[in-house]
């Protein structure tokens, strides 16, 4: 079941990138936590920004909220260091497949 939710999330983020004409490159190797690279582009097609994405896809990521914000806590030191020391800006993307949010 977890694998299915993860795949749905990666596919959904890829669809968002496609709709915005951004380049999306899934990273299929199971590692510490970069699921994809997304390259934001200008309408001319010129590269604007390359980002590393960690995509988390489960309803449980949305359980803790404060002031209309999602509180994201469930990471370990290894993941945190990997994301913050990455040569690319890293973004954690939360996706709830139950309500498509």
CATH architecture field: 3-Layer(aba) Sandwich
- What characterizes the major β-sheet? 4 strands, mixed
Question: Approximately how much beta-strand content do the residues carry?
Answer: 25-35%
Radius of gyration: 14 Å
The tally of domains stands at 1
Measure the end-to-end span: 19 Å
- In the CATH hierarchy, the third-tier topology is known as Trna Endonuclease, Chain: A, domain 1
Average per-residue pLDDT, rounded, comes to 87
Low-confidence stretches: none
Shape: globular
CATH C-level name? Alpha Beta
Q: Can you write the helix and strand succession as a string?
A: HEEEEEHE
Report the structural category. alpha+beta
Q: Level of helix content?
A: 25-40%
Q: Could you give the count of β-strands?
A: 6
* Number of helical elements: 2
Q: Strand order across the biggest sheet?
A: 1-2-3-6
Describe this structure in words.
The mean pLDDT is 87. The protein has helices at residues 2-19, 77-84, and strands at 23-26, 36-41, 47-57, 65-66, 69-70, 90-95. The strands form 2 sheets. Strands 1-2-3-6 form a 4-stranded mixed beta sheet. It has a single domain (2-95), classed as Trna Endonuclease, Chain: A, domain 1 (3-Layer(aba) Sandwich). The chain contains 2 helices and 6 strands.
């Amino acid at each position: 079941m977890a694998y299915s939710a993860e795949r749905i999330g990666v596919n959904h983020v890829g669809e968002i990138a496609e709709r915005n004409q951004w380049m999306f490159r899934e990273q299929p190797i199971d590692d510490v936590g970069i699921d994809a690279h997304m390259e934001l582009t200008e309408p001319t097609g010129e590269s604007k920004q390359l980002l590393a994405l960690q995509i988390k896809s489960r309803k449980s990521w949305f359980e803790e909220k404060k002031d209309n914000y999602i509180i994201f806590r469930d990471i370990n030191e290894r993941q945190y260091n990997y994301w913050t020391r990455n040569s690319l800006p890293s973004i954690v993307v939360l996706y709830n497949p139950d309500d498509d949010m």
